[in-house]
Structures are given as C-alpha cells and as structure tokens.
Amino acid sequence: MAVGPSIDELHFATEPSVDEVPGPNSRKLLERQREIDSNAVAYPRRVLIALEEARGATVRDADGNTFLDFFAGIGVLNVGHSNPYVLEGTQEQLESIAHTIDFPTEARVDLIEKLRTIAPGGLAGSSNVVFGGPSGSDAIEGSIKLAKHNTGRHGILGFEGAYHGTTAGALSLTAGKKYKKGYGPLLADAVHVPYPTRDAGAGGRDACERCLDAVKRKFEAPYGGHETPAGIWVEPIQGEGGVVVPPEGFLQGLRDIADDNDAMLIVDEIQTGLGRTGEWFATDHFDVTPDAITMAKALGGTGLPIGAMLYHEDFDTWGPGGHVGTFRGNAPAMVGGLRAIEYIESHDLLSHATALEQYLRDRLDEVAETTSELVDVRGKGLFVGAEFVDADGAPGADVVETIQTRCYENGLLVWNAGRHGNVLRLIPPLVLTREQAEVGMDILCNAIRASTTEGRN
Questions:
Q1: What is the pLDDT of residues 248-280, one digit of tens each?
Q2: SS in 3 state form for 290-356?
Q3: Which residues cross the membrane (predicted)?
Q4: Do residues 375 and 341 lie in contact, with contact meaning Cβ atoms separated by under 8 Å?
Q5: pTM over 0.70
Q6: What is the phi-psi region of residue 182: left when phi exceeds 0, alpha when psi lies from -120 to 50, beta otherwise?
Q7: Would you call 266 helix, strand, or coil by DSSP?
Q8: Cis peptide leading into residue 428 (ω within 30°)
Q9: With contact defined as beta carbons under 8 Å apart, do 119 and 102 qualify?
Q10: What is the DSSP letter of 452?
Q11: pLDDT for the residue numbered 202
Q12: What are the extents of the domains in the chain?
C-alpha cells in the first residue's frame, strides 16, 4: 500500500495562475529585503518573487500568484514542497526531540540503515555514514578530512566546471573563479583538470581519454607540479557547470586511477542524489562504486538542512570526535530524509523521473529543430539542461535570461547554469505530474521560440 497521498493530490493546481508579477505585496517584501538583507542575496535579482506558501510542484507568492516550480530549491525538494507524508513525520519528531548531537535515536539509525541499503554499487551494506554540518559544503569538508586522514596526503583534485560549495575546503574544489575572487589563498595543492564537456566532445572516446590522461598525469607524472592528490572529487553529472553528463568510461577511468594510486574517489551527489536522475544516485548510471559520496539538499526530505557522507567501512578509521558538527543530530531532518525515500519507493518515482525525462527532452529536441540557438539537450531523470548560443554562436546567457523572464511572467520558475550562464537547468520535484510537465513545457517552449531567432523572424 502506498504511503501518503498520490502525486496528483500534492499541488495547488495543475496549471499556473498569474495576474501581475511582481504584485504589490511581492514588491513591498522585495524592497524591504533590499534595504536590510545582505548584498549576497542572488535569486530575487533575477526572478522578482516573494514566496508565501508551496505545495508539491507549485509555489504561491505573496500576491496569490501560483507558479509551476521547475527549480525545487536547487534540487532540494525531490518529493515536493510540504509533502504531507514527510511533514507528518518531521512534526511528530519535532514535538518529541529535535536536537540530539550524535546520541542514537530511531530517526538517526533508521536513516543510516536505509542509506546503506540504497547506496550505489559495492557501498550497499558495506558503508558507514557520518553527519557533520547542515550543508553540502560541510559534507565536502568532511570528505576532504576523510581522504587526508586515510592517505596521509593533502593534495586534492577536482574538475573544471565543478561546484562543491563555498566553505574554504569546498571552495578550493569549486572551479568558478567568481566564487573565489578575494578569498585566497585557499587549500594548498588543489588542482583542477578538464571535465569532458560538449565543447571537448563529450560522448567521444577521444575527449574522455584526454581528460583521464590529465587526471593521471597529476598523480603519476614526476613533474606534475603538485603533491600527489589524496583523492579525486567529481560530480557524476555536473550541475552548476551546465548539467554535463560525462561519457561512458569516464567515472570508471577515475576509479582505476584512484585504485592505481592509493587515492580515494569521492563522488559529489549533493544535487544528483536521492532519485534526482532516475536512480537513487547518479553514480548508479555508470556502474561504478566510489569510496565515498557526499549528500545534502534532498536528504532533509522537506527542505530541512542536513549534510552527510556515506563511505566504505574500510575507511572508517576516525576515532571519537574525528569529525563533528553541532547540528549533526537534526532528528526532524533525519525523519524527513527517511520518509522522503519511503515516498519515492512507494510511488515508484525513479521510473516516473525517467519517463518524464524523455518527455522533457523530446519537447526540447522538437524546438531545437527550428531554433538554431538551442544547441544541446542533455541530462538524466529530472535533471535536464538545455544549452543556448546567441545568433553569432557565442554562449547565449542573455538568451537564457530572456527565456527565464518570459517563463516567470507566465507562471513557470526555471533557473540557469553553465560556465557562461547559457544553460537552462530543469530540476522540478520528482512528484511533478505528466499533466504539469505538459503545461510547463508549453510555457517553456513558447518562451524559447519568442526569445530566439525563430520568434523574431
């Protein structure tokens, strides 16, 4: 028997309902925020909205406008906003005990056991979990400590286009210069090598071999320029980098290099994990077992903050207090994570995500046939990217911004990605219905046509 309501019952509506955007209440809240909030605030600069409530794959602003959400808090809300089955468990836990540090609770032990069950490859049943701080950046920090502790080396290797967070260690692995400007020096001997992107011929054997050779040289070349890394940190599908899916053989090649050099392979599943790509973890698409995976975002079930790392038990060499964090005992978030996994299982949302992926990509491919600015459609599950260039063939960040604005004005929330900001990133909740997908793609495809050469001719 399925747990919780069906996905059809979770939302405010199937279609968006938008009057004036931004409405007067949103404008007031946006102005109040501008006066007192940090200059670091980013999202309301692009999408002028003040949020009031949300259900499933729909959000409602302060003026009562209802939007379809193809953003999901950057992949946080895999089972949708305010999922009743998840909320019921988190509220019960909150009324019982909320903060437990690392004392055992049923919530903690049950979630760890469940994660061990769904872990990718050889990690299933042979892994341990450590909680630290509440964010993905904190999970990455823990993974850096784990690799250093187990190898005795301090060098770290990441990839061009990578995003792993913005705390000091995570920022060292993040590739974007805009995030690092003014904050150096960061960790010593942090190096970045090419990730096989479309421009490098992603999908082609030659591109894969070139990228793997660059990794291998950092480990084995006597004049590689840096200490041999303690580990390799990789997103199985790059998110911020533009929803880049590597070619077959890339992750296995990294696994082989790590094994040959007594290094750890750490896979960042913070955005791609817990069903996002149609598998529990994106690593499952490539049949590779990492030494550790980092998690956060959807792990809290309903937006509650929690970060964790799951790693092979052979690397559990820490002593008591070897990795800590005050909020490593967020019991409501642990219940939320467990219940979200149960809801995904019960409603077969992995298969659902795979089916909707095909629909989203088919609609975008159809537009691409008549819109020369849409040059690539890629992704796995409900993690889809559409890359644009401008009329001159340069990265089309302005095109994406125009499309995004048209979508917002018509009741669809989407976001961008890519090294040049020229990729639309579609990451709706896994509970998005087929009907909502059709409505949302109608809005998106119309926005693309109106914003590109096709619409201007």
A1: 999 999 999 999 999 999 999 999 999 999 999
A2: CCEEEECHHHHCCCCCCCEEEEEHHHCCCCCCCCCCCCCCEHHHHHHHHHHHHHHHHCCHHHHHHHH
A3: none
A4: no
A5: yes
A6: left
A7: strand
A8: no
A9: no
A10: S
A11: 44
A12: 7-76+348-456, 85-346
CATH number of 85-346: 3.40.640.10
Tokens representing 6 are: 């069906």
Beta strands at 292-295 and 264-268: parallel, antiparallel or unpaired: parallel
The full DSSP string for 92-142 is HHHHH--B-TTS--HHHHHHHHHHHHH-SGGGTTSEEEEE-SSSHHHHHHH
State the Cα–Cα distance between residues 351 and 364, nearest whole angstrom: 20
Residues 6 or more apart whose Cβ sits within 8 Å of residue 195: 159, 160, 161, 162, 211, 234, 238, 241, 244, 246
206 CB burial (10 A radius; 0-12, 13-18, 19+) = exposed
Contact criterion met (CB below 8 Å) for 41 and 33 = yes
CA distance linking residue 306 with residue 71, whole number of Å = 19
Distance of CA 432 to the CA centre of its chain: 17
CATH no., domain 7-76+348-456: 3.90.1150.10
Q: What is the mean pLDDT of residues 373-381?
A: 97
- Provide the token pair at 346: 């019960």
Helices and strands per DSSP (H, E), number in the chain: 15, 15
CB 428 within 8 A of CB 435: no
Helix (H) or strand (E) holding 169: helix 168-173
Residue 164 one-letter amino acid: H
